[in-house]
Amino acid sequence: MTSKTLIFLFSGLFLFSYGQKKKKKHVDLLTEYHSFKDGDLRKDFSPIPLNKRIAVFPFSKATKVKIISYNLSLKRSTANSYVPPPPPSKTKEDSIRLVKYYDSIKKNIKFELREAIERSIFAGIQESKTLTLSEISELSDVIYNTCDKYYIKSVSSSGCFFPRNAILFYDEDDNIFAYFEICFECSGIESSPRNILDPFKTCEYLYPDLQKFFKSKGLTTEYVEKK
């Protein structure tokens, strides 16, 4: 065997052994995916900083942010958002009964935030607070960083939705251009415009922290029984 042949042979063996050493270990992504449970804390969690949080719509456009409470004295089972037109009364007694009937209904009419904004009629709002810059920072931290702390495979909804709280976003003309409507009893949140938040930002862990934020600012988040 010539020296030239030996050189080629040893070169081939060296490259083969080097390639074997550098070969990466196979990773089973499915096994890795199932290696954690829902709710486990993420070891690689890194919070979104304030400058990036407020650069996201609707915070990026807002000149004022307000939190509100409404429908506090209404039970979901008795609330009525529609009042049918009254039939014509034939006697004075009929008129008295109709007045009493509609007075009782009005006490159970559900406040609809969308309609209130469209009509600019906000008499149904029971509590409100305009947030300071530090409070906006605190709120955005809750919204954008809470769920990212956990491993979450899916997000589900209870199906019921009876909001008593909302976050309102105002533009430079002092008009509401977006809002988050929240039901703490059902752990649900809806937005206008729709789908502002990624569904995984609205996991079950968001609501306790968000409710705590509302309460810390003096707002009620649950049904209050009439006395």
Would you kindly provide a written description of the structure presented here, covering whatever features stand out?
Helix 6 runs antiparallel to helix 7. A hairpin with a 5-residue loop joins strand 3 (165-170) and strand 4. The chain is an alpha+beta fold. Strands 2-1-3-4-5 form a 5-stranded antiparallel β-sheet, with no helix packed on it. The longest helix is centred in the first third of the chain and has 20 residues, at 3-22. The chain is built from 7 helices and 5 strands, in the order αααβααβαβββα. The termini are far apart.
Question: What's the SSE blueprint?
Answer:
Blueprint lengths: L2 H20 L6 H5 L16 H4 L10 E7 L21 H15 L6 H7 L5 E6 L2 H13 L19 E6 L5 E8 L4 E5 L13 H11 L11
Antiparallel strand pairs: 1-2, 1-3, 3-4, 4-5
Order of helices and strands: HHHEHHEHEEEH
The number of helical runs is 7
Mean pLDDT across every amino acid position? 82
Structural class by SSE content: alpha+beta
Helix content: 25-40%
Number of strands: 5
Q: Using only CA atoms, what is the Rg?
A: 29 Å
Taking the alpha carbons of the first and last residues, their distance comes to: 106 Å
The 3D shape can be described as: globular
Identify the strand order in the major beta sheet.
2-1-3-4-5
